[in-house]
Amino acid sequence: MAGNRTFTMIKPEAVENGNTGAILAKIQEAGFKLIALKKTRLSSERAGEFYEVHKERPFYGELVDYMSSGPIIAAILEKDNAVLDFRTLIGSTDPAEAAEGTIRKAFAESKAKNAVHGSDSDDNAQIEGDFFFTADERF
Ligand code: CMP
Q1: 66 FRET partner, CA 20 to 30 A, in 46, 99, 110, 114?
Q2: What count of other Cβ atoms lies within 10 Å of the Cβ of residue 36?
Q3: CA pair distance 124, 135, nearest whole angstrom
Q4: Model-level pTM?
Q5: Residue 57: which residues within 8 A CB-CB, separation 6 or more?
Q6: Looking at domain 5-137, does it have CATH number 3.30.70.141?
Q7: What is the C-alpha separation between 122 and 73, in angstroms, rounded?
Q8: What per-residue string of b and e applies to 77-110 under the rule 16 or more CB within 10 Å gives b?
Q9: How far is the CA of 63 from the centre of ligand 1 (A)?
Q10: Coil, strand or helix: which one is 93?
Q11: What is the C-alpha separation between 40 and 20, in angstroms, rounded?
């Protein structure tokens, strides 16, 4: 059964470019409720741990360096069918392939600097939310 929560990060370039408010507005306009929200910065060790699943990929080093290069916004989002609906809202990993109206189409610069992360499964949404938030940071 599809779960009702997903996890997102607004990535360093989108935060640096002042797009946090516009991206959060799009997320809320699409019907997602903010359950937890914080601005923080990942150390390279923490970024490496978060993206451990991509350790063998050629872009892993670049990904870890980039994701620890500046502050990010982390959030747990709630909506029916959250994981799939959020992935539709953000669009393809590569902004060149992202559909019109998606967050990545509007804000992403490249495959690496692609504005936002979205969990790819209910299990990962749980794991990723737990990576950033304690129980008393969720409302
Ligand atoms: P994200 O949804 O955060 O999950 C894994 C990330 O790896 C992905 O978004 C991209 O930012 C990044 N990524 C995927 N493919 C590439 C690539 N070919 N080059 C650089 N980064 C990539």
Answers
A1: 99
A2: 20
A3: 17
A4: 0.96
A5: 63
A6: yes
A7: 20
A8: bbbeebbbbbbebbbbeebeebeeebbbbbbbee
A9: 7
A10: coil
A11: 13
- Ligand 1 binding pocket (C-beta < 6 A) is 54, 59, 62-63, 93, 111-112, 114, 117
Q: What DSSP state is assigned to residue 54?
A: G
Angle at 118 between CA 69 and CA 133, to 5 degrees: 70
- Please classify residue 22 by burial: count the beta carbons closer than 10 Å to its beta carbon, then call 0-12 exposed, 13-18 middle and 19+ buried: middle
Rounded CA-CA distance 18/71 in Å is: 12
**Active site (catalytic) residues:** 117
DSSP helix/strand/coil, 94? coil
